């Protein structure tokens, strides 16, 4: 009989680890496949906005329209306003836009969910196998860390902006160490087409530039492949998102972002800014992948002690430097508003106000997991301590995956639709089809405004809304819409007034009674008794109907007539449709 070589045994073992990780990942995506549109999908900054933007490009047939004069009329149009510039939306050269064009919206969501997390696993695994934990006996640890990184709950609508960073770093480190292959160039070329410049791209380029300079300083030679790789990444980003970048530089329209008032949006007290930075350090931003970092910090601390005891000062330097870099990123975010306020209304101040140059925090998940791998290297590869730490981090990642936990709850029956509406219940297509049929007019001929619910629901169903959640739109619309809600803002809390006047990305029908809650389901029995809106301002923007998730008790005083109440078993909402008189 022939015996197997140690190397073949190790390869077989690592293959088994990878198969095990694949099985666990199938379990991870099971709720989304099993529940279908009955699954819960995160609403905040997702179904209420970014997800909807991708779908709007499909239903308006503008996904691949690169004309800077094109307008999207489905939101914030009416009266003298004709819509939002197409350049304010995602580029048609992005693979996520293509997926929404080709697939039904929920299917596109799940496909991108799978793609984003698979890219995260593959990228972290390759990075660890080649550069951090290359020895065969680290096979289990590198597979485990890669799987844990794949569980980082980053927003799918950002594509691979967060999860793809280890894969991109892998490619650039190969260039830096002069061990690159053609696949590394392919990764660099494709990355901008499945990520977004404004969220992470710019900051990735800056950090990669710093890594390259440091590496070349150590090598005492110019690494031309690395420089060409960074140039390729930068040029490809400029090419893929040229509409947005051109509009930003040349100000093809005055964005509402120029009216951001950071002195009101954020506290100007140093202690509050430090607390904000500390919170980000311990728990990264929700849309970049929020999870508790204390466990990784603790392991890194023990790793420093062990490395110092072995006089491994290079490792000590890395284990100390990476948390310091993370702290700097957090401080940039925590104190960014001081710079914007100090620059004021100068041209440079306007640029810093419109484009948030503090988003280095999008790099935190990758940084933390690189630190985690380096810290675990200070312990036995297959020792009890390593496995204990990995299991502990797995539990932390499960807790951090709120959306997944909710869907597991839906599978087991412990979470109800009233608590967390499913994709189907939230967008309520059957119910809004009834509303559309009742009005019986082309949807482009009238405008609606929503109360007690996100306008993305109406937009998803083809209605043209005066209200919307948009990160970028023409400034004059903010002031025209404010006339509708001026009295309600005056009656409401200071927080609500500041949120609109100093921010106003959510151009919603705010009321003093409902406050800043936009999710009133049919089981909540909420109502508005003293609504005071400017109906003339509403009609000036061609507002014809109010789509309300709550009854308006004094509708007649606001020149509104109840047309009909719509209820549908699958819907999260009960809709009161009011006609503007």
UniProtKB/TrEMBL annotation:
Keywords: Membrane, Transmembrane, Transmembrane helix
Species the sequence originates in: Spirosoma liriopis
Keyword Transmembrane helix tagged: yes
One Pfam family recorded for the sequence: DUF6044
UniProt protein name: DUF6044 family protein
Membrane-spanning intervals of the chain: 16-35, 106-128, 140-173, 185-214, 226-249, 281-304, 316-339, 359-376
Superkingdom of the organism of origin: Bacteria
Cited InterPro entries: DUF6044
């Amino acid at each position: 009989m022939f015996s197997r070589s140690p190397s073949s045994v190790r390869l077989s073992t690592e293959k088994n680890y990878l198969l095990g990780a694949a099985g666990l990942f199938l379990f991870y995506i099971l709720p989304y496949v099993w529940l279908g549109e009955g699954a819960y999908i995160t609403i905040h900054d997702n179904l209420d906005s970014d997800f909807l933007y991708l779908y709007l490009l499909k239903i308006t047939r503008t996904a691949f329209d690169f004309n800077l004069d094109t307008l999207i009329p489905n939101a914030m149009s009416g009266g003298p306003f004709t819509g939002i510039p197409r350049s304010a939306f995602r580029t048609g050269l992005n693979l996520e836009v293509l997926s929404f064009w080709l697939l039904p919206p929920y299917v596109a969501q799940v496909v991108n969910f799978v793609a984003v997390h698979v890219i995260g696993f593959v990228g972290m695994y390759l990075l660890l196998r080649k550069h951090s934990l290359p020895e065969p006996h680290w096979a289990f640890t590198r597979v485990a860390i890669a799987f844990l990184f794949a569980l980082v709950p980053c927003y799918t609508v950002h594509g691979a902006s967060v999860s793809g960073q280890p894969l991109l770093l892998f490619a650039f480190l190969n260039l830096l160490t002069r061990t690159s292959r053609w696949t590394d160039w392919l990764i660099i070329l494709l990355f901008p087409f499945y990520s977004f410049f404004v969220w992470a791209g710019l900051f990735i380029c800056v950090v990669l530039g710093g890594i390259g300079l440091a590496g070349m300083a150590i090598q005492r030679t110019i690494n031309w492949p690395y420089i060409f790789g960074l140039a390729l990444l930068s040029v490809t980003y400029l090419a893929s998102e040229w509409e947005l970048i051109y509009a930003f530089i040349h100000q093809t329209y005055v964005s509402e972002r120029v009216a951001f008032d950071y002195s009101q949006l954020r506290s100007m007290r140093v202690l509050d800014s430090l607390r904000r930075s500390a919170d980000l350090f311990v728990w990264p931003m929700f849309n970049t992948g929020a999870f508790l970092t204390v466990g990784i910090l603790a392991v890194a601390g023990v790793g420093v002690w062990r490395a110092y005891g072995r006089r491994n000062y290079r490792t000590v330097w890395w284990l100390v430097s990476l948390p310091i870099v993370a702290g700097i990123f957090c401080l940039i975010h925590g104190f960014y508003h001081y710079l914007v306020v100090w620059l004021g209304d100068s041209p440079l101040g306007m640029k810093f106000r419109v484009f948030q140059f503090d988003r280095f925090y999008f790099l935190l998940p990758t940084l933390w997991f690189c630190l985690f791998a380096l810290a675990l290297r200070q312990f036995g590869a297959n020792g009890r301590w390593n496995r204990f730490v990995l299991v502990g981090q797995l539990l932390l990642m499960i807790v951090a995956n709120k959306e997944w936990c909710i869907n597991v709850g839906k599978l087991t029956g412990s979470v109800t639709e009233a608590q967390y509406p499913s994709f189907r219940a939230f967008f309520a297509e059957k119910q809004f089809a009834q509303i559309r049929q009742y009005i019986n007019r082309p949807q482009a001929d009238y405008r609606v405004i929503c109360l007690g619910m996100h306008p993305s629901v109406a937009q998803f169903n083809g209605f043209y809304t005066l209200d919307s959640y948009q990160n970028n739109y023409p400034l004059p619309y903010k002031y025209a819409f404010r006339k509708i809600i001026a009295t309600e803002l005056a009656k409401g809390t200071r927080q609500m007034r500041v949120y609109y006047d100093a921010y106003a990305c959510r151009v919603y029908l705010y009321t003093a009674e409902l406050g800043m809650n936009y999710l009133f389901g049919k089981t909540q029995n909420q109502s508005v008794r003293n609504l005071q809106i400017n109906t003339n301002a509403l009609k000036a923007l061609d507002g014809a109907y109010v789509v309300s998730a709550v009854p308006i008790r004094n509708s007649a005083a606001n020149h509104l007539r109840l047309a009909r109440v719509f209820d549908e078993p699958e819907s999260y909402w009960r809709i009161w449709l009011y006609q503007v008189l």
